[in-house]
Amino acid sequence: MSPHATRGFTLIEVLVALVIVAIALGAGIKAAGALTHNAERLAEVSAAQWCAENLLTELRLTHQFPDIGESPFSCEQLGRSYDGKLKVSPTPNPNFRRVDAAVANDQGQPVLSLSTIMGKL
């Protein structure tokens, strides 16, 4: 072994290793952020779906044939407020009506739309 040979890593090797670690950490942070966003979106869509389903179930339980037209509604689920529009449309068969419940978040952005068919009793 020559007197000038030393053991250890060169500066370039250390810098390359740091770049690799930084890229891996950046990718991990981006993936964690995407998972957090997806979890928040799932909670929002689930709560909006509960609002729409509750409204449509309430209509069924009243045993009344809904009138054609639009009407606003609002509800609160999981501490969030949701506004929506209930739209009742005619169908080719006069004994049935199409009912659409469109739900938006508190910023007015559409979150979910559910549709069903209701018949005369």
H/E element sequence: HEEEE
Helical content stands at 40-55%
Strand content: 25-35%
Largest sheet: 4 strands, antiparallel
Helix tally equals: 1
Shape: rod-shaped
What gap, in angstroms, lies between the N and C termini? 98 Å
The strand order across the widest sheet is: 1-2-3-4
Look at the helices and sheets and give the structural class. alpha+beta
Indicate the radius of gyration in whole angstroms.
Answer: 28 Å
Question: Which parts are unreliable, with pLDDT below 50 for 5 consecutive residues or more?
Answer: none
- Please state the oligomeric state of the protein chains shown: single chain
Number of strands: 4
Averaged pLDDT: 90
Transmembrane segments: 12-32
Subunit structure: Type II secretion is composed of four main components: the outer membrane complex, the inner membrane complex, the cytoplasmic secretion ATPase and the periplasm-spanning pseudopilus.
Function: Component of the type II secretion system required for the energy-dependent secretion of extracellular factors such as proteases and toxins from the periplasm.
Protein name: Type II secretion system protein I
